[in-house]
Amino acid sequence: MLTPHALRAHLLATRIAGTVATTREESLRSYRLFAARDPRVLIGIDPVWAWGERDVVELMARRCGVSADPRCVSGPEVIDPELTLAALDAYAERLARAARRRAAVLIGTGHPHRLLGFYAALADALSAAGCAVLTPAQGRCVDITTRFGLRTYNLGYVRGVALVRDGDPERPGCEPGAHTHSPLPVRAVLDAAAEAGGPLPELVIGDHGWACGAGQLGFEAIALADVNDPAPFVGEAEGRVSVVVPLDDGVRSDYYLPLTRYVLNRACLSQ
Fold first, then answer.
1. Is the Cβ–Cβ distance between 228 and 26 less than 8 Å?
2. Cystine design at 112: which of 116, 142, 147, 207 (Cβ 3.0–4.6 Å)?
3. Would you call 33 exposed, middle or buried from its count of C-beta atoms within 10 A (0-12, 13-18, 19+)?
């Protein structure tokens, strides 16, 4: 079993936590846009509280370990690995609770090229524990505004994990799916589940708009999030996202394997 000490060393060695690839400039830009209520950064969260840029910085310092010093405006960001470990423990506890109830779950990612393996392992373990891993709206089209204009994507599932693929035949999507922050895919999936008469998920597991969009609609959601994505952490602070794990969400996919083993062991879901 991977110990917290060993996982902490792995987080630092792979830069999943500690000094990460995300820059302070990227983070501050996102914090400013969030304070301005830019939908590209809200990714499904409709904040109740008035969040200024300074408020967001202070929240991210508490939840992630980034600098709260307003004079720190450049250089690499830092994630406190102790905060990552504590959040992973809370994340595992939510998984264990869902497994004990044999709850219906929905799992989706906007980072399929990096995080699909992590989520697919959770899907396998939860299914083996008796949970229904939901897959509604397979093949449904979703129009998402991107920096390149309006694009049509198709909803799909890989090993029980929801994602979107480019639906334009002139622009075939690269497997296993496309990167997106949008909450529109999870809204489409939940609408389809409701239209079909259920079941609806008791827990939504994901990132970006998958977690934020579900949490905003009142579903329990747990998330992984980078420090330049403040929306999940605001959602957590306001009570709409249950757990958010701070980490770099863009490292090599195999670097997340020890996190998978750790979470499944903590949740008593190892196979």
1. yes
2. 116
3. middle
- The values of phi and psi at residue 222, to 5°, are -125, 150
Q: What is the pLDDT of residues 183-224, one digit of tens each?
A: 999 999 999 999 999 899 999 999 999 999 999 999 999 999
| pTM: predicted TM-score of the whole model, two decimal places | 0.95
In the block, tokens 């799909």 appear at: 156
Question: Residue 254 gets which letter from DSSP?
Answer: G
HSE, side-chain direction, 13 A CA sphere, residue 140: 18
Ramachandran sector of residue 130 (left: φ over 0; alpha: ψ -120 to 50; beta: rest)? left
Q: Which two tokens stand for residue 103?
A: 């709850």
Cβ atoms of residues 114 and 126 within 8 Å: no
Separation CA 83–CA 129 (nearest Å) = 28
Across 196-232, b (16+ Cβ under 10 Å) vs e yields: eeeeebbbbbbbbbbbbbbbbbebbbbbbbbbbbbbb
Task: Label residue 148 by pLDDT band (50, 70, 90).
Answer: confident
CA of 100: how far to CAs of 8, 36, 96, 221, in Å?
28, 41, 6, 17
Q: What is the pLDDT of residues 17-35, one digit of tens each?
A: 999 999 999 999 999 999 9
> Would you give the DSSP letter of residue 199?
P
